[in-house]
Design a protein that fits this description.
heterodimer, A: about 375 residues, alpha/beta, Rossmann fold, 2 domains, 7-stranded mixed β-sheet, 15 strands, about 45% helix, elongated, B: about 325 residues, mainly alpha
Chain lengths: ~375, ~325
Amino acid sequence: MKRNVRLFAVVACALFAFMFMGAEKARKPAPPKGEPIKAKIGVISIITGQGAAYGEAITNGIKLARDEVNAKGEVLIDLKIEDSSGKQEQALAAAQKLINSEKVVAIIGPTLSNEMFAAGPEANASGVPIMGTSTTAKGIPQIGKFVFRNALPESQAIPAAVGQAVKKYNIKKVALLYGNDDAFTKSGFDTMKEVAEKLKLDIVTIQTFQKGQADYKAQLTKIASLKPDAVFCSALYNEGGVILAQARKMGLKVPFVGGNGFNSPQVIEIAKEAAEGLIVATPWFGEKSDPQVKAFVSKYEKAYGKKPDQFAAQAYDAFYIMTNALRAAGAADRAKLRDSLAATKNFQGVLGKFSFDAERDVVMAPNVLIVKGGKFTIFN
Amino acid sequence: MEWLNPYHLQVGSFVLINAILGVSIYVTLSTGQLSLGNAGFMSVGAYAAALLSTQHQVPIPAGILAGSLLAGAAGVLVGIPSLRLSGVYLAIATLGFGEVLRAILINWESLTGGAVGIAAIPQMGRVILAWASDRGFSPGSLGLQNNQFISLTVFLILLLCTILTVAFFLRLSRSRVGRAYAAIRLDERAAEAAGIPITYYKVLAFSQGALLSGFAGALFAHSTSFVSPGDFTYHRAVEILVFAVFGGSEHIFGPVFGAAFLTVVPEALRSISDYRYILYGLLLVLMMVFRPQGVIDPALLRRFRRSGKGTPA
C-alpha cells in the first residue's frame, strides 16, 4: 500500500515536469536579410510572486519590440528572460547567470530599484550595460558607468505636476500624505517635500500610512481640520484610490497631486467620481494623438488583449533604445554598446523624446494629467 | 578556468549564508524553543555591518564581528523576558520582535535610510581584489578573470565561515552544553530536576542563534552590497524555519541540507520560471506527507554511517 502511494507521487511529479517543459516555446526569429548583427540580450523581471503584474507588462513590452525589431532584420536579438521574483538576491543570481553563463551583450531590468542596487554593481564590475525600465529611485545611474535607466525618476515627474497645479490653483498651504514603508512612495514624498519647500509653500502637516492600510480617516481628519489648499499624496494606486474616496466623502474637496503611483486607471476604478481633479505627472500617456503611440497601443492590445500601461511602454522603448545603440555600435560588443548607448540623443519613442544626460539618467518631458469625466486628460 | 562560473559561485554563496541561518534556527530549536525572530536578528547584524562600513569606514571583518555581537546582545535582551513563554507563544513574541525591528528600520530614517535602505555597501570580494591589486597582484596570474576572482573569494570566505560554524556546533552538541540542550528539549522539568540551570542554557541557546543570524546578516550585506527593511520581513523568518523543517531539526546537518537544497532548487528550475515556485510548494507539501521529521534525521545518519563502514574504502 505504502509503496503504491510513493509510486503515485513519483508519477505525479514526472507528469508535472512534462507539462511544464512544453509550456514555453521559443518563437522563431524572422529570416535575416543582408548581414544582421546577432546579439543576446538578457532580461531580469518579476515573473513569479508579488509584483508579477509589473514583470508581465515589462516582458510583454519587450517581446513586442523584439518581434518588430527582428522582423526588420537589421539586428537579430535572442532574448534570455530570467525571473527575479522581486528579491534582490535572486536578481543578483539572475544577473550572474546572464553575464557569465548566457554571455549576454546587455541586460534590461531588473524591475525594482532594490534589485538594481544588488544587480547593478555586479553588471558594472563585469562591464555589461544594464538598463532599468522601472527603477526610479535616487542614485541608480550613479552605481557606475555601465548602469542606465529610461524610467523617469519621481524627482523629475513630481516637480512638473506640483509646479503646474500650484500655478493653476494658486496654492499656498499644502498637506503631505505618504506611505512610509515603501521605497517608491517614500522617495516620491522626499521630492514633494523638497519641491514644496523650494516653492515656499506652507506645509501644514505631514501624515504617514503603511502598506495595505484600509482606513485613512485619522490622517484625513487631521488634514481637513488644517484647511490646506491642496494635498500632495505619495501612494501606490490601491491605497491611493481608497484615500481619494475617503477624503471626498469627508468633504475634503481640495485638489490632490499624486506621485507616479497614482498614474493608473485602477485609481479611477477604485475611487470612481472621487478621483475627479486628481493631478499626476507621468512619462506615459496612452491617449495621445501621436501616430507612434496609437500604433503601439493597438499592436499591444492585439497581442495581449489589454491596453499597455506605463511599464510596458517603458520596456518597449528601452528595447528600441538598446537595439538602436547596438546598430550604432556595429557589433555585439559590451564596451562599444555602452558607449553608443551613452550617446543616445533625441530618441523618438512612444514616451516622447528621450536622451541620456552625462550621468546616464533620463532627460525627457513628463505629461501632466488630470482626471476629468472619469479618465485621464492633459492638464492645462 | 572557463568552468569557474561566477553564477554558480553566487548561488553557492547564498547556499552558505542560508546554511548559517539554518544552523541559527537549529541551535534555538535544540533546546525546544521555536523562534521566529531570526530575520530580525539578521537585520541587526546586516544593518550594523552596513552602517559601520559605509558611514564609519570600519574594516569589513570588524564590522561583521560587531554586527554579530550586537545581534547576540539583542538575543540576550529578548531571550531573558521571553523565557517565560514557550511553544507558539514564544514564536509569536519573537515574530513581534522582528516586526518591531523592521518598523524601527523603516522609521529611523536619519540612520537607516528608511524604506529605501542602504546601498553601495563594500562587497567583500571587490574590496579584497582592490587590496590585492594595490600590492601588484593580478587575478590573471591565477588564470582568473576579475569577476571570477571576486566571486571565488566571496565563496571561499563564506565556505570557511560555514565550516567553522558547523564544526563549532557539532563539537558543542557532544559537550556538556550540548547534552544540557538535548536534556532540556526532551523534558524541561526532568532536566531542571537533574540540576541543569535551564534559564542559563535557554538564554545561551537563544543568543547563540541570534548571534549566528546576525553573522549571516552581516555576510549577506557584504556580499549583495545592498540591504533594505524589505529583506527582513516575516517571509524571511518563515523561510529560515522551513530550512529546519524541511531538512530536519534533530541533527545539525538537517537545516544545512535544507538550506542548500531549497536554495538550489529554485535556481535549477529557472528554465520553467513561471512554475518554479509551484514546484517548490509541491515539494514542501509532499515532504510533510511522506517525511514529517525532515529529510535528515539521526536514524538516517546512523544508517549512512553503518553502510559506509560496510563498504571498502
